[in-house]
Design goal:
2 domains, binds adenosine-5'-diphosphate, disordered C terminus, globular, Rossmann fold, 14 helices, Molybdenum Cofactor Biosythetic Enzyme, Chain A
């Protein structure tokens, strides 16, 4: 069968987040971890979301991986490509959103490309080209202290323009979007006349994204660059209706664990709440990393006797000042990679020890874990909180929830591991 939509996500939690929205809007979705082999055929899928780990990779690596994903999706018949970026536009002055968007636009011969990280349901809105996280400008939010991609400028036009070399960046503002799809298309034509073809589109509510989705489908645009929010609206514009299938969730029996490598404000609060509720938790002290201790084994020695009693949380999550101290000692990238490696090793050991439900917090951390666990394809199941569904590995049957750092309610971990008992998730 022919794919209607081909998606390329720049990290693993982002891929799941998008897949979740597409499923809720009526599409059958398969999420692959990395670019599938040429001979893999996706049956019964309206959309495939290819999860890459390219958000903080070297620019050329991110571009090459994204182009390879694009080629595979085109070979499967996808006529529209959705480059999924973070709803907080996580990137650095080098990229990777701009360079990847430019390369995909070139490959797909896109005349103009709408760009919007807006996800109003999760408090991410764009107004006059400025990104808000709940009530704060991006640059005033906790994202300004992110370990790998600190976001210190809320102007998406400025941030994107600094990353781009081939295409001009412009804005389709909110008053224009109020004019509906024809007004959006007319604004794009005007921008094109000024050599601007990567166009940030304002959106402060689902209706705005609906307008954009309509314009995208009517114009048969080959490429969109967006957070997962547009994914909630695009299927309807393409003629899909809400799914009649009841999404699935794991049973409560068996061992379960949480791995947390996100240092985002929301995850810090979730870790604190889990511990305060009496949850078993083990902190990885990243400052000990440089001493060459086997921290993964230490964590397992702690976890093994507890696994039969309750879920265990193994976390490197910590406050920004501690992250800075670790980074000063090890270097930013080295610190991130080392912590990810330890947590991924713990994840593998926990699964080998019989864990059947695994929650992972942190985009990069999730990427490291699913790679280490050698997962290839995930079936997307029930939503725990907006943007975070349970997924089941198509090969091993392991249930996994991949949570982007700032997503989820404060009791997310407890909810993920207990709500399914009451069958409340839908
Ligand atoms: P988020 O989704 O919140 O952005 P990520 O997992 O993508 O979370 O990024 C967090 C990064 O911070 C990872 O690279 C992780 O390894 C790193 N990290 C986690 N804990 C620490 C720590 N204690 N010190 C330094 N870096 C850390």
């Amino acid at each position: 069968m022919t794919l209607r939509l081909g998606c390329i996500a720049d990290d693993f939690t982002g891929a799941t987040d998008l897949a979740n929205n597409l499923v809720r809007a009526g599409m059958r979705v398969v999420q692959t971890l990395g670019v599938p082999a040429d001979d893999v055929v996706m049956e019964d899928a309206d959309a495939v979301v290819i999860a890459l780990k390219s958000r903080t990779a070297p620019v050329q690596e991110a571009v090459d991986a994204s182009l390879a994903a694009c080629v595979w999706l085109q070979a499967q018949g996808a006529s529209m490509v959705y480059f999924k970026v973070c709803s907080t536009f996580d990137s650095t002055p080098r990229g990777n959103i701009g360079p990847v968007a430019e390369a995909l636009a070139e490959a797909l011969h896109a005349l103009w490309v709408p760009v919007t990280p807006a996800f109003p349901e999760n408090g991410r809105t764009v107004y006059m080209g400025h990104l808000f996280v709940q009530q704060q400008l991006l640059s005033d939010s906790s994202m300004r202290q992110h370990p790998l991609t600190p976001m210190t400028d809320a102007s998406l036009v400025r941030v994107l323009a600094a990353q781009c070399h081939a295409r001009g960046v412009g804005l389709i503002d909110w008053p224009t979007v109020q004019g509906g799809a024809p007004a959006v298309v007319a604004a794009a034509q005007r921008a094109l006349a000024q050599q601007q073809s990567l166009l940030v589109v304002d959106s402060i509510g689902p209706r705005d994204l609906g307008v954009l989705a309509q314009a995208v489908v009517e114009q048969a645009l080959p490429l969109v660059v967006a957070g997962s929010g547009l994914g909630a609206e695009l299927p309807a514009a393409m003629g899909f209706t809400h799914s009649r299938h009841r999404p699935t969730w794991p049973s409560t029996s068996g061992r379960s664990a949480i791995i947390s490598g996100s240092c985002s404000a929301a995850t810090n609060a979730q870790v604190t709440a889990f511990i305060a509720s009496g949850g078993e938790a083990y902190a990885i002290d990243a400052l000990q990393l440089a001493q060459g201790l086997d921290l993964a084994q230490q964590a397992m020695d702690w976890a093994l006797p507890r696994l039969d009693r309750s879920p265990v949380l193994v976390y490197a999550t910590t406050e920004p000042h501690t992250v800075r101290a670790v980074q000063a000692q090890l270097g930013v990238e080295q610190a991130g990679a080392l912590v990810e490696q330890i947590l991924a090793t713990v994840a593998c050991k926990l699964v080998a020890a019989g864990v059947q439900r695994l929650v992972v917090a942190g985009g990069e951390t999730s990427g490291a874990c699913v790679q280490a666990l050698n997962m290839q394809r995930l079936r997307v199941g029930a939503q725990i909180d907006p943007g975070v569904p349970w997924c089941q590995d198509a090969d091993s049957g392991l249930w996994i929830a991949l949570k982007s750092g700032n997503f989820g309610a404060v009791d997310f971990f407890q909810k993920a591991l207990s709500a399914q008992a009451s069958g409340e998730l839908a």
